[in-house]
Design goal:
Elements lengths: L24 H4 L7 H16 L9 H11 L11 H10 L10 H22 L6 H5 L2
InterPro entries: Kinase-like_dom_sf, Prot_kinase_dom, Ser-Thr/Tyr_kinase_cat_dom, Ser/Thr_Kinases-Pseudokinases, Tyr_kinase_cat_dom
Organism: Sphagnum jensenii
Protein name: Protein kinase domain-containing protein
């Protein structure tokens, strides 16, 4: 597997590895899966970090997993979450894992957002050197 998280896994896949609230549908359903299950879980964790909530709060873990698999339920994203992060999370937990992003694509979006913030800060605070600039001097 490449360092970007892309590639083919050759090891044996285990069923129901993980916690139901963060588990991708294909793992819960005992289907063959690949690294995209981790992209799905990352999207759920993004939601958790951005909202401070517990995914599918109000449901038991089993109810949450069944809702995800049978009804396509996903966490509701509040309007205060930045649009780019909202879209990224939704892409990560896409119903069809083949349609979800690779980790390299997730990283590219996050890096772009950081660079925009750093550029805005330099503009606002008079061009102070950034960590990346200092590391590459």
């Amino acid at each position: 597997m490449s360092s970007s998280g892309e590639g083919t896994w050759t090891g044996e896949m285990t069923a129901e590895t993980g916690t139901y609230r963060w588990m991708s549908p294909e793992v819960f359903e005992h289907k063959l899966y690949d690294h995209k299950v981790d992209v799905y879980s990352f999207g759920i964790m993004m939601w958790e970090v951005l909202t401070g909530g517990v995914p599918y709060d109000g449901f038991t873990p089993l109810q949450a997993a069944i809702g995800v698999v049978q009804q396509g339920v996903r966490p509701e994203i509040p309007p205060f979450v930045p649009e780019k992060l909202s879209l990224l999370a939704q892409q990560c937990w896409h119903q069809d894992p083949k349609q979800g992003p690779e980790f390299s694509e997730v990283l590219a979006v996050l890096e772009e957002m950081v660079m925009v913030q750093m550029t805005n800060r330099r503009f606002m605070f008079g061009g102070r050197k950034t960590r990346k600039t200092l590391l590459h001097e």
